[in-house]
Design a protein that fits this description.
Elements (H helix, E strand, L loop, with lengths): L42 E6 L2 E5 L5 E6 L2 H4 L27 H14 L4 E6 L2 H15 L3 E5 L8 H5 L13 H4 L5 E4 L11 E6 L2 E2 L5 E2 L2 H13 L3 E5 L13 H4 L6 E4 L11 E6 L20 H16 L2 H22 L2 E7 L2 E6 L3 H10 L2 E2 L1 E3 L5 E4 L7 H16 L1
Parallel strand pairs: 3-15, 5-6, 5-7, 7-10, 10-11
Antiparallel strand pairs: 1-2, 2-3, 4-12, 8-9, 11-12, 13-14, 14-17, 16-17
Length: about 425
């Protein structure tokens, strides 16, 4: 995606900045985030299901169709009335003390995964979850971290070190981060003949999100995980983006029979209501961790995160999410077939309610063209060369078909 800045407003005459040729503006919200991709600053006035009402700086509004689910964080639709925080919470944040919903959700999550002898460690956001998982593995068996090329695991120094997709875009990609490279070995998808001696853990996304919704070969991954476990290496499945039915199953790792020691969830775990994550780990990983060692930080015990996670769990229990996945998959399968016939796309993956491909034109240009037609899609890939389509599972079928027609027509043009 092209990250060129657009018109950022009038120049602030209070004081000029020194160096770099950067002029100050009247804006106070930083441009050092993903908003740079849109070329001008937009404001979200309203979000409902798959519809977004956005406004420009001057206040005019436009209606958009969201085919990104906010990177898979809002799989069940924006502002879903069946998924909400309490209007008057019974508690907010009490240091070191969880609300009862924490235990209820932990039991629900481990039951949904069909695992026994596992515990749930709550964290704030996906990067913290990855960091905690790596720490557990290193405490059990110090050594190298084996990551798979094409994975994206977060923006902390350690989680970014096991990331290869789009790492060069990260503000945190500095010499400080690069000093950790010696602790990480990167494995090419499909590579065999691994020397497991000296390896602490294996971390992977079953379906690589930032790389462009590209699945790893299931049979290769099954064999890789089995080898790792036989060698005493901790296996970590990062399902922060691919879990919670983004690709049709609650957990791809469990669907593929990978039997990881740690599973990571975040994003749609709270359907965008609160930055919360879960490290679901085999309880035996606690062996050898002294009582003086803890994995804690502010807001880890926030009741709002637990309330939101339970609300999503209740929604899944009371709605036929699998049927929604099948319904959304039908127009996407039709679009995938048309893409293949047109010859305007390569490396097409339609996995349940998601679609990705490599267009013959510049992917960033296609994202911008669709945005101009009020359809929000995602770029992706190792260098931004792919397109990702991830509609909310609650999107109306006709709205999805209309948005896909815009995408296909723009690609043909």
């Amino acid at each position: 995606m092209d990250l060129r800045l657009g018109d950022r407003g009038a120049v602030d005459d209070e004081q000029s900045l020194s160096g770099g040729g950067v002029e100050p503006t009247n804006a106070r919200v930083s441009d050092l985030d993903e908003s740079r991709a849109f070329g001008e600053r937009w404001t979200c006035r309203r979000a409902l299901n798959a519809s977004l009402t956005l406004s420009r700086g001057e206040g005019t509004t436009e209606e958009f169709t969201d085919l990104s689910s906010s990177y898979g964080a809002v799989n069940f639709g924006h502002c879903n009335e069946d998924i909400c925080l309490p209007a008057h919470p019974r508690s907010d944040l009490v240091a070191g003390v969880y609300p009862p919903e924490a235990e209820r959700f932990a039991r629900w999550l481990t039951d949904a995964l069909g695992v026994s002898g596992f515990k749930v460690l709550f964290q704030v956001g996906g990067s913290f979850a990855v960091s905690a998982a790596l720490a557990l593995a290193q405490r059990r068996r110090p050594g190298q971290i084996l990551a798979i090329e094409g994975g994206f695991h977060g923006l902390g120094l350690d989680s970014l070190s096991v990331t290869t997709a789009q790492r060069s875009f990260a503000l945190q990609e500095t010499p400080l981060r690069q000093s950790l490279d010696s602790f990480v070995d990167v494995l090419a998808p499909g590579e065999t003949g691994i020397d497991w001696s000296g390896v602490s853990c294996l971390i992977f996304e079953p379906i690589q999100g930032a790389r462009g919704y590209v699945p790893l070969d299931a049979h290769w991954l099954q064999d890789l995980c089995a080898q790792a476990k036989n060698a005493g290496v901790t296996v970590i499945a990062d399902e922060i983006q691919c879990g919670y039915y983004r690709f049709g199953d609650f957990s791809v790792a469990k669907k593929w029979g990978l039997d990881p020691d740690v599973l990571l969830f975040s994003k749609s775990m709270t359907n965008g209501l609160y930055p919360f994550s879960a490290v679901v780990y085999r309880q035996t990983l606690e062996v050898g961790i002294g009582e003086g060692l803890i994995l804690a930080h502010t807001f880890q015990t926030s009741a709002l995160g637990c309330y939101a996670a339970c609300a999503v769990a209740d929604y899944i229990d009371t709605h036929d999410v699998k049927a929604d996945c099948r319904r959304v998959a039908v127009p996407l399968a039709e679009a995938a077939a048309r893409l293949a016939e047109s010859g305007r796309a390569r490396e097409i993956y339609q996995i349940g309610p998601s679609l990705s491909f490599r267009p013959v034109i510049n992917a960033g240009d296609l994202v911008k063209a669709c945005f101009a037609d009020r359809v929000l899609i995602l770029g992706g890939g190792m260098d931004g060369e792919r397109i990702r389509i991830a509609p909310p599972l609650t999107i109306e079928t006709e709205a999805l078909r209309r948005a896909l027609e815009i995408l296909l027509s723009r690609l043909s043009a």
